[in-house]
Records
---
Amino acid sequence: MFRLLWQELQFRRNGIIGWGIGVSIYTALYVGLYPSFDDQLALFDLADMAFYQAIGITEMTSFAGYVSSTFVNLAPILLSIYAIISGSGTLAGEEDEGKLELMVTLPIPRWQIVTAKALATAVALFLILVIVGIAAVGTLSAIASQVETPVTAVDMFLSALYMWPLVMVVAMISLLMGAYLPNRRTAALAATVIFVGNYFGNSLANMYNALDAIKPLLIFTYYDNAPAVLTEGQAIADIAVLVGISLVLILLAVWAFQRRNITVGAWPWQRAKVV
Amino acid sequence: MTENVIETKGLTVYYGRQRGILNVDLTVQKGEVYGFLGPNGAGKTTTQRALLDVIRPVSGQAWLFGLDCQKEGVTARQRVGYLPGELSLYENMKAYQFFDTVEAMRGKNGDKSYREAICQRLNLDTGRKIREYSRGNKQKVGVVVAFMNKPDLLILDEPTSGLDPLVQQTVLELVREAKADGRTVFFSSHILSEVQEVCDRVGIIRDGQLVATERVETLIKQQFKRLRLSFGALPPADAFALDGVTETARDEQSVTLEIRENLNGVLRTAVTYHVLDIDTIPVTLEEVFLAYYGGK
């Protein structure tokens, strides 16, 4: 199992470096530019701007508000693209490419294959966020003399790591879709629809009280992007819910993959009943 | 007592409503090279995938080394080397890295000197990235992966596909060496000459059903004999119009016949026309195979 996990991490090495650097550049650009237009942002009242609220940007008049709106709010969206690509590529993608056949014929239980791939994805996402966190700390240090804020370097680093449970859920949704649906394209599409639905569903639910009932069903409900989260951190209960959802998704992916006929790529309802 | 390395009973696989294989009953004994013949789509790959638990049967059961392919598949597959028909590799790896990766995933450190010896015999440069390889070289990588751990059972799906004739011979030598070591080979192919060359027994699969299993030489003998009869004066055209006998060629001095039954009748008739010579012309497995499919 450990060897398999190690191999899976090796396969993800380029993705970790590439996405780590890419999201770090995004972070450095957004956070680093704050001193250039903080005066203008101070006048930027978003309270009545429904569009901004719909995409989760709630306040930009302070450094914490700006960072939460750009970095805390949008970096997980960027990383979710990686999560969907990586998650759907893990089983469905490898099956499409024909690589999975040789792997499942090795003396490895299928549950270990799924678990190792899920763990490798989890570690890859964590390492990307460590890189991003370091970039965020570096950027804050670079502009510290120009910014007056209670947000510390540790807060910046932890705010990156707090994204992990959320992007992990997105990756595991994609992994489950890859274990269940016939090919990568469908799995990625299904995961994207679920992700986008959750994101905008949550934003709308935050704007309209009538949608309160659906909030517990949306993953973004368990990820806070209010400015205070930078200094106070995400709620432990929310983290626990997201980690719990990820674990359930991994179990479902194991269940789906155990039953899957590899190399066949049929829709679930087209599959023959197996003894 | 012979040990069945592969056994299936009533093995049936469907892809939705589409037929994969139907009620396949087969046994492959220890130390045997079993050739699995059939055209594309007959069910060769499906059978091999069901044995390796890549796909699951809708009914029937399969065992490797007496172990249930599904319930005890992991244990059974520790002793199996597999070469898929549609080989797909990690293109960014160098070949030796790929071999190390497979060994790591197997949880084994194989005999590297044996692996290197195979690579040398196949003339494979393992220091290059797989994406730089030709199709034939990629196939060689698959051959090495299948053989490198000296598994007790080799399941090879069209192993010589894409290889040049010299390398094909090397692969067939590897198969013979595996047999000489007492290992078992389950070998699917539609190249009949190579099956004839290395296999002890052959199974012919047709439309998902195993239609014949026989020793190679017996299958050839059983099916038909081909005789060329030479005469001083040729007998009339309908002289050999007997049940089970087909005249396939005629020249100025001889008549060639394919005989499924009624050999006595042929000989009696030949004697009446003063036969001068009788030659037996070898029947290839390919011809037997075509006879099965062509309904000759």
---
Amino acid sequence: MSDEPPTRAPGRPGPYVVVGVLLLIGIAVPLMVPVYARAEPSLIGLPFFYWYQMLWVFLDAGLLWICYAIVRREDRRRREAVQDPEARKAGHR
Amino acid sequence: MSGLLTAAPPARPVDGVALTVVIVIFVAVAVLGFLAARWRRGSAPEGLKSLDEWGLGGRGFGSWVTWFLLGGDLYTAYTFIAVPAAMWSTGAVSGFFAVPYTVVLYPIVFLLMARLWSVSHRHGFVTPADFVGGRYGSRTLSLVIAVTGIVATMPYIALQLVGIKAVLTVLGIGGGGNAFLQDLPLIIAFVVLAAYTYTAGLRAPALIAVVKDLLIYLAVVVAIIYLPLHFGGFGAIFGAASAKLSATNPATGLPTGSVIPAAQSFNAYWTLALGSAMALFMYPHSITGVLATRSRNTIRRNAVVLPLYSLMLGFLALLGYVAIKAGTKPIDVNGAVNPQLVVPQLFLDNFPSWFAGVALAAIAVGALVPAAIMSIAASNLFTRNIYRDFLKRDADPASQARVSKLVSLLVKFGALIFVIGMDQSSAINLQLLGGIWILQTFPAIVAGLYTRWFHHWALVAGWAVGILYGTIVAYTVVNPVTHAHFGGSIAPAPLLGTPVYIGITAFVLNLLVSAVLTLVLRALHVADGRDLTRASDYGADEHDPKVEALEARGDDDRPPVTLPSA
């Protein structure tokens, strides 16, 4: 397959595995209903069920912020590798 | 409040101050909508003569604009009306699932949408069906995706009108005997909306979304601080909600609802949240918002900050319980209880008229933003994947923009007729079905972002099975009180027996059929379509050359981007 010119060099698996695990946590954990389907401990009168799920808004934002930092770093590395002619040859399949 | 408790259809008093505030904000927003035609136009010619300009706002929205645009696009007025209404009537399972739904949504968006942006940017794709058509080289599959998108979006637009109607009803407009006069304010609102969408395209809702979101945040923050203090704190509010929802429903002999879901609804709760999250970014209006961004990472940055809207939605949902404690009486013009009036009525009962006016205007304007984006997205689908692919293959960008503008008027007119002419509950039923239907485009769109393994005929078959199954099962769900069909979106899963979201069951079936048939078709060597995309397309960013430029330079040995026959 002609794939010319490449936009990015091949990715390293490490960063993508980490991001994948973080995203999976961000999807799976808020859906584990038995964990939070309870009234206690309540917070300023809000049952646990309600404040825990709203807390996940912040946890998810935090997770995604970490993912964004990792992905952007790896993306930059892959782009710079292609801009350099030597690395470009190495990255070309 | 007086006069609302009587059994006879009450003549609702018109609140002059609140009404004036709503009208002033509405007029200001309309002016803004028309001015938006000149906003960020850059070097593009006057009149927005291409779909990139009219339908995607010039494909140049940065992080801030996108945050407001997607916030206004995804968290619609109907959500603001329906989620607290569901909390007020049956509690957590049908209402509060919206919070985990809009939380797990963003990891999914983060994962998928940057790739979709890149490949669409390279090839100039305007709609999800454009991408599917280019990826699988199949006009049939592309048509299937486009038609599903249009059909699922139409009732969604109609429900935005239902949102405006709730506001107008509470304001005391829309009583009276004359059917035409009763709906006149709604018609005026929609004609104005249609006019500035026609003129300014996606720029209009993008600019208006900024105003709308600021108003909504103001209203929700004030309400969630003031109302609980006023009604004795969240402890008292949850006490009242628990008492109401645990009361026995005479029609079923079961409790009306629950504040905290019982074990038998756990699966319904999480499948509703997950299925809705998977479906939301398959809707054409969400993808329009994504493709209007400037660079690959704009949508990822937004996935980090958009959850703030989910927090607001959570507080708004809680207002449904606050209304129980406050004894809000959502009585419609015909004297019947209409839960959808709960939030507007709560604001009108408990705040000074001018502030209630601001809150009601926020909801009404909040209906205009998604209605505009949805009509643009639906007309783009028609123009690109029906008009250009099947009716007029050589349609140039200017004529595509012209067709899209006209169709956007038709789409809005259709939605208006729908809401005025038909029972409101049929719009709600269709929107419920729409969610199930749009989820059936997930395998084709999402798998396509990562792999070409699936055969396009297998995906068409999987889609058909999913749609058929979802529709039939949704039909058999009977409302225990009214005995009407399409009584809800939860039904027992086959084999498992536990109640789950129908969309998820249909999706699993769809995926199975697609996978098995792919193996069969590959074994039979049935011809596959031509993939017009390349691996490098999925990582492209704003400054990478577009496919057109690559071809002109001779870097590419592929044919120009036109879809081969199905």
---
Amino acid sequence: MDMMDKLRILADSAKYDAACTSSGVDRGGRAGMLGSAVGCGICHSFAADGRCISLLKVLMTNSCVFDCQYCVNRCSNDIPRATFTPEELACLTMEFYRRNYIEGLFLSSGVLKNPDYAMERMCRVLELLRHTYHFNGYIHAKAIPGCSPELVDKLGLLCDRMSVNIELPSEKSLTQLAPDKKKDSILKPMRAVRDRISQNKQDLAVYRHAPAFAPGGQSTQMIIGATPETDYQIMRLSAGLYKNYGLKRVFYSAYIPVGTHALLPKDQPPPLLREHRLYQTDWLLRFYGFQVEELLDEVHPSLDPLLDPKCNWALNHLDQFPVEINRADKETLLRVPGIGLKSAQRILQARRAGSLGFDDLKKIGVVLKRAVYFIVCRGRMYDGTRMTQSFIYQNLTADVRRHPGDLPLFPAVRQLSWQDLPDLRPGREDTIKCLTGQL
Amino acid sequence: MPDGPAVVLLYDDTFEGLLSAVFQSYSFHPAPETVESGSLCQQKLGCRYVEAIPSEEQAERVIAGIRKTMGWAAYEKVWTAFQSAFEDKGDAVYQYIRIGMRVGRGIHQKITDPRVMRVDKICALVGREAGMFRQFIRFSKRAGGVYYAPISPEHQVLPMLMPHFCSRFSIQPFMIHDKTHNQAGIWDAKDWYITSAEGLLPPEAAEDDRAYQRMWKSFYDTIAIRERINPVCRRNHMPKKYWKDLTEMQWKNEDPYQESRIPLPSELSAQMVKGLSQGGISQSPGLGSLERMIGEE
């Protein structure tokens, strides 16, 4: 089998992994070494599905002894199998890197023989890259559940970011669909990485040249839509991961039907819109100071497909609005729909030079289409707006209702039938009536 | 003071010349209406055109003044704006410096002032293009081990790209060829410089280069998930004007790895399900059909 076939098979097997980021490490070039890393990451290409290609995302091998039902590489699946030798993969990475095709390597592996054996082969690739080829670029390595802690340690010292996939959002689903993976075999390496990173931070404070352990932090991924967990359960899990495991990112991957297990959904397009809403919520947790309980709860466990989570929150907390743009502090500004991190910063900057009106906000880059209902400038609301739930809801969703194709990520719209609109909140009953009346 | 015709200063298309013009503008009362490029300017009736005399010393004094009064960030903006291809960049920079010298560091707060916004916008566009090329430059290996990349940027982004790539490929000599401005940025593994690319002939391609290009193209086509195809999203992130130098966007209609004929889009979904459930690589549609599936791009 030549390199081309191997690359095709192993990239095909790796493509369902969501993470392909190269962020978190800022490291200039070093004398005698090839490569650098940029803090915000660089995307080198965008695939036909619009996802960024930043790293060479391949598996070491797609031969796997595990039989996880949601995974295309499960041992009971009849697909062509291939395995890179460490030398082949290291050489390929270098050649791609030299041509500016990629930012580095995203290495993951099927479980060949046993977890430790597979991890050792991954370490070998990384050693070749770092020590033989003097590669200074970005490496993301995925630890295999159930491997020994020494190997986690070794891998962490060679790569920039480590991840252990949590795979499914609940233990019950995991036992049903991934008989070889136990909750503990996943959480154990995650804890090990977390402890090693925090220990490394102390080491670095004492010895400046102490070897860095996964300086880009730890991330994880879970599959959305394969199992019946609600958005509330998923986001609570993420919040816990951010808080207790110090994760940098949690990735959500819409399930694409690749399995045949009776519990898995079949012939159903991937829930892309749901994935999008989960990412929006994730951002609200990480950058906007929201708590999960503010956005979702037991009674309303699903995110609204028509409204983004921030608009939805604002609509249900109209008592906290309107916000005076010229006085509000940053935390309050960040909670206004249509104002993001950048525009909040720019508002703070600009209002020191003079008070701001609506046209100034537009120049600054605030999305007035969403923001007008929630703000006042110099004590005045925007002409023609009313502070009632139904008015705002109708206006915010007018575009979507008129042109459902304009919903973000249009393929999902076909999947979104009007019957399974999530529970709609009591305060909006009147709007809903008119909504369903139209349909 | 008598109302004479409005004065327009002309500069000689160099950064130095522009800054000298700004310097000399302060000797006019009232201040000149605008500063324009001497080679592009179409003279109008009712204006008095004065050619500014380029002077290294005056330019340096303006630079020192900007840094001292408006801060380093402002000087960087002035320099970046000058790298743009806009014809009125002279006027934008002139207005920006005039207001900046009056308000000092407060210029960074006046982000809603039209004169400041204009420079900010130009800088954002230039910076955006430089960022795009940091992502989308594709080197190919040439005979002698030199890596060569052609680009066709709108603005002069070469000075912004070189430091990034020199730090990254510190042990690898390369050349970036700016076809629009006919310039080449060269890194010889020690120093970098920008020179004219008049009559530049890049060396022959290295032997193994084609194979890696093929492999990259094949990786690119494989990594897309067919159920998620989203051409609009791809175009937003990777505008089509960058495609012509992208290795992975070449050879659209030839696919040496495709074994059977290209399936029609209507057959695709059935075949996709079949291919996925059986997991056969040979049954999954080849890259030609993927492009077709994406359709009218």
